[in-house]
Amino acid sequence: MEWKPNWWARLFRGARPWTLSIGDGRVRIQGIAASIDVDVSEVASLAVRERPRALLVSLTHDREAVLAGVSRRSAYEIQAAHGSEVAERHRLHSLFAAAAEQGESARLWWNDVQELMSRPRWADRDAVAALHRTRPTTDGWIAASTELQLSVSMRNRSADERAAVEACRTLDLAQWSERRNEEFLAWEKQELADFFRTVEKSPLTEEQIRATVCFDNRVRVIAAAGSGKTSTMVARAGYAITRGVAQPVEILALAFNKKAAGELSERMEARLKDDRAGVASSTFHAFGLRIIGEATGRKPSLPDDLVNDNGMGRLAGVVDVLRDRDPVFRRNWDLFRLVFGRQLPDLGDEADPEKADPRTKALGFGTLAGEVVNSQEEVMIANWLFLNGVNYEYERPYAHDVADAHHRQYQPDFYYPDIDVWHEHWAIGPDGTPPPQFTGYAESMQWRRQTHAAYGTVLIETTSATIRDGSGFEHLEQELRRHGIELDENPYREAAGEPPINDKAMLTLMRAFMSHAKGNRLIPEVLGQRAGRSLRNRLFVQLYEPVLTEWDRQLHAARQIDFEDMLNLATDHVEAGRWTSPYRLVMVDEMQDTSTARAALVRALTKTPGTYLYAVGDDWQAINRFAGSDLSVMTRFDDWFGASSTIWLDWTFRSPQSLCDVAGSFVTKNPGQIVKHVRSSADDLGVTVDALSVSDGRDYARVLREHLVHLDGQIHEPASVLVLGRYRSSADDVANALRSKYSQLRVEFNTVHGSKGKEADYVVILGLERGAFPDMREDDPVLQLAMAAPDPYPNAEERRLFYVALTRARRSVLLLTRRGRESPFLIELVRDGAVKIRSPKGDDVTPCICPKCRKRAMVERSGRYGAFMACTGYPLCDGTMQIGDASASPRVRAQHRTAPSPRG
C-alpha cells in the first residue's frame, strides 16, 4: 500500500511531496532528504503530531522522519498496515521456528527408527509401538514449506531433515517393520545356518527357525502334535544367548509339572552344553516358592500331607473340627451329603439311558430307602424324607380306580400313609412350564389336579424349580407339619437302598472346589453371587466358607502354605515390587494347560519393558481342565498378555498324513478351537486307523495278545507299542497281554492323560465303549462356580483327549470296542468314513448308524412282526429300519406307540 501528502497541505501549507509504502515486510519512504527502506521490525513507532499535522516515523537506530501533510485517515491506515505487517512477520517467524523444531524432532525420531531397524535383532512389537507413540507432528513444517515467503528457506534445509519429515508423514511403521523382519529372518537363516542345523539332533525346519528368530515381546506358538515344540524352546534359548538378547541367567523355562520341567532341563543341558549354564527350568509351584522365600527372607514350608495326599487328611481334620464345634455346619454337611450329594441333570434330561442308575442299571435312580424313582429330583425328595424319618410310599396306586380309555390307573409320586396325603412333583421350571419335549404334560397335570378335587383327596405339590432353589423343601416341611407329621432328622439312619455319597467323596469334592476357588482368587462372597438361586450351590458355598477359614488359619499358625498360595503370593510379591525378576526371556511349555493363577504369575513376570514371553502349546491337546487349566489363556492370548505374534508349527514328524487327517477332522468339529492344518513329513505305511470289535469285554486281553503277536511277527526291527486306556484300571483287563514277552515289541501301558508327550510306533486304544470313552461322568456342577468357563461344545475335553490318544502313533492305531456298545467317537469315525470295524476273525462288522440321531449304532431286535433294526439309544431315540435296509440306504420307520407319561 502507498500513501502521499494530501493536496490541501501541498497547496496551502507548502508540504513537500513524499511517498510511503508498506508491503512484503518492508517500510519505504521516498521524497525526503534521505530515503528509507527498512524492515517493518526496525520501525519503533508511528506517531501523529498535530498543528501542523505530520506523521513522525521513529526507527530503532535513532533516526526519525517527519512526513508533513498526512491526513488523519491516512495516518490511521499507515499505523494499521504497519501493525499488520509486524504481526505477519511474527507469525512467519513463529511458523519457521516451529517448523525448525518439528524438523529436528522428525530427524531424531527418524534416527530412532533407523537405529531400531538396523539392529541385528527382530524389531519387536513394543519397540515399534513406542515409535508410534513418539512419532512427532509435522503439520507446522508442511505449513511453512507452502508459505511463499518461507518456501525458499524450507527448501534450503538439509536433505536429511526433509527425508525425516517425509517419513514422519507417510511411513507405515507396522508394514515397514514386518517387511524388515522378513528380510532379517532371511539374513539370519544364512548367518546362523550352522546353529540352526546343529542346535537339535535334526536341523530345524523353516517354521521352527521362524519360531526361534521371531523375538517379539509376546510370542504364541501353536504347535501341532509331534511338531517339535520342545526343539524350538531349546533353540530359542540358544539363539537368545548367541545373539546377546539374554544371558543364560536371564532365561527361565516354566513347565506344567516336575517331569516336564526335568525333561526340558535335560534337553537344554544336552543340546546347549556350556551355554546352558544358568538357564533355569522349573515348575510353576517350585518357582513360586522360590519367589516367596526371596521376597520375604523366609522360605515357607509345604505340609507333608499336602504332598502325600493333596491335603485330604488335613481337610478331614478341618471338617471334624467344624462338625464338633458348629451344629449348623454339621447339619448342613449331612444335608448336602444325604440329599444333595447327587448332581442334577438339566430339566427333562433324565430319559437318557446312558444316565440310568449306575447301581441298578434301571432307567431310574436309586434312593436311600431302596426304591428306584424316575428322576434325580425325586431322589432328593425321597432322601430328604428318609433323612427326616417320614414314612412314605413311592408311586402307590391312587385310592380310587380312575383308569379309562385314555388314562391308566393313576399313581401319584408320593403317598404319606400316616396322614393320608398325596404328593405330586411337577417337572416345571421357574416360568411354570414343562420342558418342550414333555408332550401333553400340562394336560396331564390338569387332569391329576381335577382328580384329587373330584374325590376330595389332599394333594401336596412341589416343582423342579422349587426343589432346585430350595424353597420346595421349606414348603414340603410346612405342609407335612400342617397335616400332622413331626420330622425326626437322623443322618445316621440305616439305609437299605442306594447309599449316599460318603464323607470321602464329600471331602474330595470340597478339596477340588477349594483348589479351583483359591487358584482363581474367588472369595466366598463372589462364589455366593455365582451360586444364584440354586439351593445346592448356596449350601455348598456355605460349607466352603468356614472350611476355607479354618484351613488357612491352620496353615498360617504353622507358617505353611498350600499349592494355591505358592502361585498367588508369588504373583503378589512380583506385582508389588517386593521381588524383581532377573529374567528377560520367559518360556512357558504346554500353555494350553496353564491355569488362571499360572497365567497371572507369567503376566507379572513379563510386564517389565524389554522382557520377552514365549508360550508354546496346542489347544487341541487341552485335557487338564480338571486340574485347573483355563483354555482361554491359550485361545485369547492377547487378552491376557497384550498384542502378540502367533507362529504355527503345522508340520508333524510323528504321525503319517492319513492319521493326521482322521484325527484332525475329528477334533476340528469343535468350532471354538484354533484352526490349523497339520501336515506330515512321515511316510504312510498303509491303513493307519483300524478298529476291532469283541463280543465281550473279557475278550480284550485275548484279542490284544493276538494283535501283538501278529504284529511282532510282521516286523523285523524293534518297535514300541503304547496301549492306552481311559482309566488306569483298563490295564487290569489286559494284564496278561501286557506282561507277555515279544521278540521285537516293547509294550507299555498308559492312561490317555498320562500319555501326553509320549509317542510310539503303534498305539492301541482300549475300551472305546459307550459311557466309558467319552467318560459320561461329568464334573460335579458345583465345581463350575469356581472354575473357568467350560467349553460349550459337547464332550469338548473328551474329544481332545481322544485326539491326544490318536496322535501318539508314528505308524498306526488300533481301536478296540465291544459290539453293541460302540463309543460315540467310534461311531462318528464310522459315519465319516474314516474307519471300518472288523471282528477278531477279520469279518467286516461295521455297524449301521442310526439314520435318525446319527449318534448310535443299530442293533437287531425282535418285535411283533419279526426282527428289525433299532437304535441302541432307545427309548431316547426310536429310530428303526428294516433289516434289509442296513446294507442299503437306511431309512426311519416311525413307531406309533403310546409313550409313557414323562415324570418330574
Keyphrases for this structure?
elongated, alpha/beta, PH-domain like, 6-stranded parallel β-sheet, 30 strands, single chain, disordered C terminus, 32 helices, 7 domains, 904 residues, Rossmann fold
Helix-strand layout with pairing:
Elements: E1 2-3, H1 7-12, E2 19-23, E3 26-30, E4 36-39, E5 43-49, E6 54-59, E7 64-68, H2 72-118, H3 125-134, H4 139-146, H5 148-155, H6 159-170, H7 173-191, H8 193-198, H9 206-213, E8 218-223, H10 229-242, E9 251-255, H11 258-272, E10 280-283, H12 284-296, H13 304-309, H14 312-325, H15 327-339, E11 365-366, E12 372-373, H16 376-387, E13 393-394, E14 414-416, E15 421-426, H17 441-455, E16 458-463, H18 464-469, H19 471-482, H20 503-519, H21 524-531, H22 535-557, H23 563-575, E17 585-588, H24 596-605, E18 612-617, H25 632-635, H26 637-641, E19 645-649, E20 651-652, H27 657-667, E21 679-680, E22 689-694, H28 700-714, E23 719-725, H29 730-733, H30 735-739, E24 745-751, E25 760-765, H31 796-806, E26 809-818, H32 824-831, E27 837-838, E28 858-863, E29 866-871, E30 880-881
Parallel strand pairs: 8-18, 8-19, 9-10, 9-17, 15-16, 17-18, 20-21, 22-26, 22-27, 23-24, 23-25, 25-26
Antiparallel strand pairs: 1-2, 2-3, 3-4, 5-6, 6-7, 11-12, 13-14, 14-15, 28-29, 29-30
Helix pairs in contact: 2-3, 2-4, 2-6, 4-5, 9-10, 10-11, 12-23, 14-15, 14-20, 14-22, 15-22, 21-22, 23-24, 27-31
Structure summarized in a few sentences:
By secondary structure, the protein is an alpha/beta fold. The protein folds into seven domains: 2-70, PH-domain like (Roll), CATH 2.30.29; 88-167 and 174-179; 192-297 and 579-647, Rossmann fold, CATH 3.40.50.300; 305-334 and 502-560; 342-482, no CATH class; 686-845, P-loop containing nucleotide triphosphate hydrolases (Rossmann fold), CATH 3.40.50.300; 848-904, no CATH class.
